[in-house]
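Encode chain A's predicted structure.
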Amino acid sequence: MKVNMVSAINNALDLAMAEKEEVVLLGEDIGKDGGVFRATDGLQAKYGEGRVMDTPLAESVILGASIGMAMSGLHPVPEIQFAGFMLMGFGQLANHAARYRSRTRSKFEVPMVVRTPISGGVRTLEHHSDSPEALYSHLGGLTVVIPATPYDAKGLMIKALHMRDPVIFLEPTKLYRLFKQEIPDEMYEVEIGKANLVKEGNDLTIVTYGTMLSVVNEVVEKKNLSADVLDLRTINPLDEKSILDSVKKTGKVLIVHEAPLGFGPGAEIAARIAEKAIFELDAPIMRVGSNSFPYPFPGYENYYIPNALKVSKAVDKLLST
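Encoded structure for chain A:
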């Protein structure tokens, strides 16, 4: 079937709920309305209000209740309407979901998948366009996933729902309906912690993920570059081996993400490359990301988010070094 990302996620949730009765969904307006982006559309009608539950507008309660459900034998999938609102429940994730396995020496598991839209480019209001992947990747005990295609969204979601630890599943809003892709009807998994080598080349490595994959692909095709393009898929754990193998082959690396540059994922990636492959580099590591200040109002977001022109200029500078 050929579907967009939001339909791929809906299909993954449907298959997982049919596979295991323990899988339950909860969140604001996810039942009859199918969620703000309709990712859960039709699932309450199919599985009932006991498995697809509308909740109060209270993110801390949603996440706290999900942790209790997970520890009691269920496999909850809470939806937080936008990533900026998930900070209201950050303490639940940082102090409990991320720590319970360690705290109890694996006596308790917390199998849950927290879904929330992230990133910008769709002219939303404040708190609706954040890219918080670095915040959650800093917490030991949380897996952080960001799909860039419908195929990966379905496969990564199913894999996440087969895990026994908490997963933060970040869904780029702009990609929900940006394009369609052919995916299998049946259940399949995409490995978490393994980057996807989207394109192969010899002149440079471009490491990216989420909304920036399509931007990077546009630049590579337009400039006819011979480049390795790595889609990380997972921010934590990071596929360090694939990054280092590519960098050692090409000798030049550009890291592109929508999240702010300051203390962002690109900084961690650059540090690992510097520590373990610096003598294989032919040029300084370069990064392209958003500015390190709050996400602007819609009229200014195109100046804030990295675009093809910014990536193209970075490529030119890197190749001329």
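The chain has a mean pLDDT of 96.
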